[in-house]
Amino acid sequence: MRLAFFTVLLMVTVVLAQQPTAQQTGVLRLRVRVKADDTAPLKGLARKRFFLIPGTLEQNRALITAIEQQPLTTRDCYYKQHNASAQLINWLQEGDCESVYCRSIENEFVTGPKAVPEFANAFAANHTEFGNDLIALQWLTNYLSPDLRDGFYKDRQRTLQTLLKQTGMIQSVMTDQKGSAYFTDLGPGTYVISNVIPTELGQTLVTWNCEVQIKPEDLATEKPYLISNRKDKTVKCVGIEKPKPLCAAD
User: Fold this and answer.
1) Is 151 exposed, middle or buried (0-12, 13-18, 19+ CB in 10 A)?
2) CATH code, domain carrying 217
3) Which residue among 56, 58, 129, 199 has its CA within the 20 to 30 Å range from the CA of 190?
C-alpha cells in the first residue's frame, strides 16, 4: 500500500514538473502630466490616446517621419471650415472634445444665454417630430450634420489608420481623468510610446515619440513611466511642441 502511494506521488510530481509555467509579463503605467503654458499648473492629460509600438525609434523611423510630417487640420480650423458657430467651437474647447458625443448636451446649451445655435436648431427640429422635450434633447445629435456631429473625429481615425497600417501588433490606451493609463501583458524588449497625432494643448501641438525598454526584471511588476511637455528629472519622455498652424481663413 505504501509503495503504491509513493508511486502515485512520484507520477504526479513528474507530471507537474513537465507542465509549462505561465510566461511572466510586465505592465507599463503611463502617466501624462502637462502644462498648457508656462503659467498654467501641471495637470493630468485626460482622454488622450497613446500607442505602444514594438521596436526602436530607428526601426520605426519611417513611421516617425510620417508622424512628424503629416499635414494636420486643428479642431478649431476644421469646425470653422464647416461653418460651425463660435458658440459650438467654444463648447468643444471647454470639454477638449473632438465630437459632440464627448460631453452631455444640457438644457442650458439649447436655450438661454449659453445656447449653441446648432443645438437649438436640432432640438427644435427633433421636438417638432416627437413633441417631447426629453426625447428631443436625448436624440438631438441625430439632427446635426455629419460634419459637425463627428466628422472631425472620423477624420482623425482615418489619419491613424493610414499611419499605422504598415505597423505590426500594437497596443493603444486612453488616459483617464488623471492622465493615467496602463499597457499590459508586455514581453521584454524595446517599444516606442507615441500619440501618433499631435495633441492640441493651448496654442501648441505636442508630439510624443520615445523609446521605453521592458527588461526581464520588469516582468511581473508595474513599471512607472512619466511623460510631459516640460522637462523634469522624473520625466522619462518630453514631447516636442510646435505652434498651432493658422486656419486658412485667419
Assistant:
1) middle
2) 2.60.40.10
3) 199
